[in-house]
Amino acid sequence: MKEIIQKDFEIYFGSDVLEKLAEILINKEYSKIFVLVDNHTKIHCWPILSPYIVNYELLEIESGESNKNLQNAELIWTKLQQHQADKNAVIINLGGGVLTDLGGFIAATYKRGIDFINIPTTLLGMVDASIGGKLGIDLHSFKNAVGLIKNPKYIFIDPTFLKTLPAIEMRNGLAEVCKHALIDDKSLFEQLQQTHESEVLDSLLFQSLKIKVKIVKKDPFEKDLRKTLNFGHTIGHAIETHSLKNDPIPLKHGEAIAIGMICEAYMSVVIQGLSTDELKKISTYFISRFPKYKGKLPPSSLIEYMKNDKKNEEGFINFTLLKKIGKAKINCHCHDELIIKALDYYQHL
Ligand SMILES: NC(=O)c1ccc[n+]([C@@H]2O[C@H](COP(=O)([O-])OP(=O)(O)OC[C@H]3O[C@@H](n4cnc5c(N)ncnc54)[C@H](O)[C@@H]3O)[C@@H](O)[C@H]2O)c1
Ligand SMILES: [Zn+2]
């Protein structure tokens, strides 16, 4: 078992972490233990976790982004109340990013905040969503419109849970694993280049999540360094929104972000002096592991989406670009023509 001990939270990583969880639950003497699952993690993950927990209430929501909403928060708050959960109760979130964002939000606001523990069960959850304390719900169609930043007390990351995760969800997380490498760790990128398709070895997973921990520790409220995590996301989010509106089967977040990273790497060559050799390596990596987008990428509507991005400042579209693989530069701006060229570059790969 590997450990990362921080001032306000602890992370345990490995296939033996649930024993540690059982030990902590006994020592902490919580007044009540609630376990939040979705309909998939109830089937695939709860049987693995349940032998380690006694005296609990199991709470369930439907899976999927459309359920990260106020109605579900209210439903779970009400159930906590019905079970007389007091300030010394704890919620264990067993699931992907939807569940840890929602469950964390519910815990952080119930009675002005009770403890919560994250047990991420998707690759994206393990390297990204469960770490860094961003909690929240969507409001109408606005993602993460209401929320706050508060860390869980503990995060238990057991790669065993990934055995039942569908391949498309693995690839979704792989995009973020690779993003961490591109912004911070050249050697991790080189190791990823040598792995096949969406295979992610435990050691690579751990290296990737350590990068997220390091970044959010230095800049928890996204004043500067945390913005490096937005690499690929300015164009990627616009493509994700476009696909959601136009495609019968919309792109997953990771698939859109993979395209975004290729385009923003292209822009990095022009603005930040990334070498064309490194651009080629990045493009080859994503093209060989992610399906090529077959729909249209109309620059004008994509740029319009980018102009509405909440991360913009002073009227500029804000990009995080790369100086080289392993070194990111935040707050970059460019003319629209370069964005158009970058989209064109992707479409001709
Ligand atoms: N808080 C943050 O910093 C942060 C960062 C990135 C993303 N997010 C959020 O994370 C969410 C996306 O998270 P996600 O990609 O994990 O999606 P998700 O939580 O919807 O999980 C994906 C699917 O996999 C299923 N599943 C989960 N674990 C499984 C397992 N072990 N076996 C089989 N099926 C399993 C889920 O039920 C779901 O159907 C978004 O809402 C996004 O906004 C938050
Ligand atoms: Zn992302």
Distance between the termini: 42 Å
Molecules bound to protein: nicotinamide-adenine-dinucleotide, zinc ion
Oligomeric state of the chains in view: single chain
| Rg | 20 Å
Order of helices and strands: EEHEHHEHEHEHEEEHHHHHHHEEH
Total number of helical segments? 14
Total domain count:
2
Q: Explain this structure to me?
A:
This protein has 349 residues and is α/β, with parallel strands linked by helices. The protein folds into two domains: 2-164, Rossmann fold (3-Layer(aba) Sandwich); 167-347, Up-down Bundle (Dehydroquinate synthase-like, alpha domain). The protein is 48% helix and 18% strand. The protein has 14 helices and eleven strands. Strands 1-2-9-6-5-3-4 form a seven-stranded mixed sheet, with helices on both faces. A two-stranded antiparallel ribbon has the order 7-8. Strands 10-11 form a two-stranded antiparallel sheet. β1 (2-5) and β2 (10-13) form a beta hairpin. α4 crosses α5, α7 (167-184) packs antiparallel against α8 and α10 (233-246) packs antiparallel against α11 (253-272). The site of nicotinamide-adenine-dinucleotide has 30 residues, from α2, α5, α6, β8 and α7.
